[in-house]
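User: Can you predict the 3D structure for this chain?
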Amino acid sequence: MSRMKGSAPVAPATRAFLAVAALGAGLLHAALAPSAPPVLFGLLIAIATAELGWAVWTLSYDRPPVFALVPALALLPIAMWAALAVTGATASSGTVLELPPQPMGAASLLDLAVAGVTAVVIRRGRRAPQTSGALRFVTVLVLSAAAVCAITVPALGLTDAGVAAVTVHHHH
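Assistant: Here is the predicted structure, written as structure tokens:
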């Protein structure tokens, strides 16, 4: 079987995209956490910490950690949000546990991109090329960062943390 195992090298351009997408999702989950109830706060902080740590590691090293598990792990926040939506839709107590849909949707889109790209890399099972052009890496990094910023920044503005950041008044 020629499938890539958990610690095989990944092409630099692919790692750049994965790291930037995970970074965006982690920032969104971290921004959603402060306004969440305590249990959900803990889950969102754990997810954000894992995504941010994985993003840094993936960009820094040619062997991203737990690569074979990433497709499933990246889908966990989406599954959590779906479970909250089902629970909220069926709650008869009148108290619905919900998260803002636009920021969670943006984070879910980024997590889905990480899961999909990682699954394709694993399925192809090819080893990373030994020499990948610096121009290709920088191009993918810049385009990925621009796309993730276009998704993440507006969604961050819709979180309580984003609203608080904009409405802070400085008195001198």
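The chain has six helices and no strands. Confidence is low (pLDDT under 50) at residues 1-6.
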